[in-house]
Fold these 2 entries.
Entry 1:
Amino acid sequence: MADISKTADRTVKEGLTGSETPYMDELCKGPWPSHARELKRTQYPVMMYEEGIKQRWTQWGHGGMSSVPGLGSGAIARKSRRPDIISHSHLIRVLGNPGTFYKTSTFRKICELTERYGDGSLHMLTTNYNIEICGIMNDEQMKAVTQELNAMGYDVGSAGDAMRNMPDCMGPALCEYAVMDTPRLKHFMTKHFIDDIQYPRFPFKIKTKMAGCPNDCGKALLHGDIGIIGVFRDLPKINDRRLSDWVNRGGDIRWVCDNCPTNAMNWDGKKLTIDGDSCIRCMYCINRVPAIKPGDDRGVAITAGGKMKGKYGPMKGKVIFPFIKVTPPDYKELVAAYTRICDVYDDNGRKKERIGDMIQRIGMDKFLELCGVEPSPMNFTSPRRNTFYHWEHEELGGVHE
Amino acid sequence: MSKVGGVGVPPVEENIPQVVLKNYGKWDTHEVVRPGVIKRIAESGDVCYTVRIAMPPSRVSVASMLELCDLADEYSGGFFRITLRNSFEFVDVNPDKIEELIDKVESLGFPVGGTKNSVHNIMACPGWIHCNLPATDSPGIAKALGDALIDEFKNHRLPAWLKINIGGCANIEEALMADIGIIGVHRDIPIVLEDKMRICEQPTVIHSCPTGAIKPKGKESVVISAERCIHCGACTMHCESILTGDPKLDGFAVSVGGKASNTGSGPDLGRVVIPYLPNNPPKWEEAVNAVTMIMHAWRKDARPDERIKEWIHRIGWDRFFKKAGIKVSIKDVDGYMYGNEFARSDLRFGW
């Protein structure tokens, strides 16, 4: 313990004497909030960053999920390449709140823990919407900070080859477009899958993202290994009286009709109609016109395979389950579908292979079969253009016997 | 040893203000009353004002968060939200005190804005602050871009919204999902410190490579094939004697046209249009020039409501390169794996 405080003291002295950090001083100027200024307000070893900019090369070394006895995933170790400045600096990932809402009374406690155990800097937020408490120096402190967080009702996790934190949009808490209750689903899913979030058992990480509507602010389709996105099947609802009020107040309904991506909308000067054969439920008119609301036949679509990293490069997610009813409080169908995808991945994925890469390797047809999906046109943008099928033995009626 | 964990996250009700709880799922509409300030109106007639500010890229100090907490206590009943683009939002602000709050928060150095047709908060990974992989310093670039585009953050002057994400290496998902993305690019294979390879497990390192680019060299070292390496950094996770990057060669690429929403032509990942620009801290002129060049071309040419992806969808990539003043090189032609899907198979040119 004594050792650590010594390191921290030294770095503060080095960092804060202005002229020693010319590059960071430059980054402190200007109107945009500066990370350099933030770092200088903490015990972060500023010379690590300063030297990084000076040499144009990161000064941090080897790291990743570290296994702390008695603690699940969530602890991340990072060694330094510059032992003359600091030997290492670890961090711990705190699972973010549902809807990413925070209350100052509890957040102050997180701040206090960061001051006490870490270097006083927070990463708000990570790409999975965790809060990282940075600059923790040893395993005992990691465990202590976790215990204190647990006592507050917070938890750590989301590192290594585990299910990651499941970020959600604000959903119905503040947004009128939400067709699915994302914050409550996030709360449920985190509780339900907490062991998988804290104990890595999969071939590689599973990032799950949730978005309340096809606007997909949670970017679930693009970067969710598994994405859960609120959808509706019937047509958008039009409130005629409200619409004419809106038009009379200067709302440009013709512009909206012209910009409908499938030209499904028709405004005859008095009444708006939406053509059921053209509408693709893209949310455009709903976003633009307050008198149009999402339909009532609501559920979620589950996508899989979105990612950036890995062998086959960046990929969009693919629709696996186009529509699943959302049934709180146990979300039975949704959990069954979600678990199925995870199990198929667990059984078939190779080590360090993301779901997207696995689908590319084994084929989408095979993946859908393994997931037990009854294939529908919702699963593809077009049918295949080759005839290189793989016929199963049973399909050949035993002719090949 | 006592078990820790297994707690999950706090319930939704614990961290939301009364007005949000009362109108949960019953919000009707919203309007942006001024850049950064959103008025949300519920079916019951209740309103909830939120004030959005830009956050420093990646790291924030406890000292600053406590200052913001103080303001939240004073003006929004102690409630705030971190948006999905990492900006900070005071939730349920008293409408009479909005001006006062804006004055105070701006005097702390946090600009108010980032709503509707403006540049939204710029997202960045930790970069050189705390990572071993990055080819570029994403927070530094984010800061330079933020300084250059601050007026666009504080005003609604763009055709649609502009989201800019920065990732320090090829692994960061965020970059390709934004209208303009910056992705760190390693131009050379990782450096193998042969005299220190003894501490690593040679088979584990070889096995870790997703493309089979690593082969044994003698009994203790490895050799990496430049042909096959995709700069993912998987080997560096298993061996501290392999270092990514080369300060003289590293830099970043610029992508455009990422979009998550299903409106218009639908969701898609961005495409890389500038293959490489050099790192040039602390001003990052190359990054700022590239982004402002693309932004101005889009702004001049796009129709109202048209995000960069939709603009390119309408005019075509051929006209995009001309209008944005970007020179096409062979690096723009995708030669990786299934990349030939992007080769042109029609004659509908936009001369």
Entry 2:
Amino acid sequence: MTSAAQLLTARRGRFRADWTDWVSYAYLILGVIVMFGPVLWLFASSFKSEAGLNQFPPTLLPWQPTQVQVAGQPAPLPLVRVLTGAHAGEELAEVRRIGLIAQLVDPRTPNQVIRLRADAIKPVMQVRAAWDNYTGLFSKFNFLRYLFNSVFITVVATLITLLINSMAAFALSKYRFRGRDGVFLLMIATLMIPPTIILVPNFLIASALGLVNSLWGVILPGVATPTGVFLLRQYMLTLPDDLIEAARMDNASEWRIYWRIVLPLSAPALAVLAIFSVMWRWNEFLWPLIVLTRNEHFTLPLALYSFQGELTTSWNYILSMTVITLLPVTIIFILLQRRITQGIASAGVK
Amino acid sequence: MSGVAARTAERTYAAVMNVPERPMRWAQARLGTGRLAWLFVAPNLAIFGIFTFLPIAINFVYAFTGGPELMPADRAVIGLANLRELLSCSNYLNPNTCTRDIFWDGVWNTLRFVVLQVGLMILFSLITALVLNRKVIGRGFFRAAFFYPVLLSPVVVALIWKWILQRYGVLNAVATDVGLHPVDWLLNGSSAFSWTVFVSIWAHMGFYTLILLAGLQAIPADIYEAAAMDAAPPWRTFRRITLPLLMPSMLVVLVLGLIRAVQIFDEVYVLTGGGPGTATTYLVQFIYQTGFAAQVREYGLAAAASLLLAGVLLVLTLVQLRATRGSR
């Protein structure tokens, strides 16, 4: 489909591609490298062993010394290639190194020790992913706990967000009652009060309610969102009232009308809000940083933050944990890319 | 398989939503349909009340009281002393002459950051949106690529760049390749500052690009056709048609960008920790550190600083309301 011919004919009304097209594509390709490259680099790095990570200049792929099991040796030995001398071209296993002299054995004749100068040999490298970066997360850290905390907060907060915001939106779009416009304005006005300016009093309220060091302390303050109410109300306004009238004729209660008729019909708007909520919650940082102070309550971003501050922790686990943290968001984005970008373009929210 | 899952989900949904059925039916009979609406908005209003409106009021209490106590009742009223302490300076341009030098470092850093970050971000978002608005092959892919970093957690964003910028990172490898000396990018004040600007543009520009792209696509094509008929040169078409018609979107982008940039914290805090020294300490970090990370938590000062920040945001929001009303 996207052949070179098409590239040439993607022009601005004239027959040949003009220079502005070339500039455009150059800009876009450079843009993709700058926007995507760093994430790919992180991903590639996360499969390197500690030695590979410390190597400078770095390589793209996880090159590691090849190891061989030699009879009579307790641990696998690194394989080296001999560059010069009588054994040139042979691949030998390095037993130990004393000063400048390396003691080598041929894996096929392990009893015969060969001594060579260290500058006559070169390690044989192979591409091998250091899966331990990932598996080690589970054994060396409280990783499952952080994962659970993040998932719990994201799922529960999103469910509550969908429920209470759709209830409010239902009332604000389908009922006429005194004070309705006032309530709506009040909710929208909270857009002007970002959480960063009420941190101290919110901390007081959270501690007064016993929510400090509780996952609920992260969940509750953000479940009512002006964006959500606005998005859902605008959508519900477009639903025909006849449906509701018909249900009332059938003696359905208002609550039943809400969850049996209005909610299912609002699925597209609910989906947009659900996506937003998942993103917000999964990525949240400042408020959890204040409310959750104990290690066992950390979410993934908090755990990442606290590990990267400890000098003793090595980068290999930070990298793999970063990859796991960005993975769910990336998968959601790949699956729902169009819906996300359209939702943002139409609602103008993030 | 998926049929079973769907049916289970459906049944769970029905079972859960049926729980409030009886009380709600009872309330409906008691209150009537009109007042029942209040029951529907109640949970939302309660959350807003407890976690947004009540805090605004309490914030004033903190701002005008002193001491390390958290409970407002235990705190001593000190009037304007907090604000005075923050604002007392013999020379406002030199934070070292201020009682709270870190606050003023934060103020000036934030100001410099906001001007640079918002200016450059709008420029690049506009260029990207203009390019994406052309007939480009693979537009969806390119749009997604520019947007993708917007979705990443600020901690992830910071770690991605920390890994690239470290002493033995890939950027220094490229630098040595072309014959430059490796640099500790984040250990030098002015370069750390520039990188916080760059990284926050990297992380957020996709969002603004989308808004501008939507604005561009809303410009009717026949206006351009008319301009082409008159053989108007591209630059004039851009200045006389595109730019004026894009103004409403540009204003939205400008004000949203300003409001967000003033509150910069997360990615910078993880990337540089505010350092080296105070080179990348911004206002919200000052609030966080005085209120929550310091040995002695100074809630009053943090709340007073929040109040000043809120004032700035209020002005920006009013400008936005003015601007959007003017354009409609």
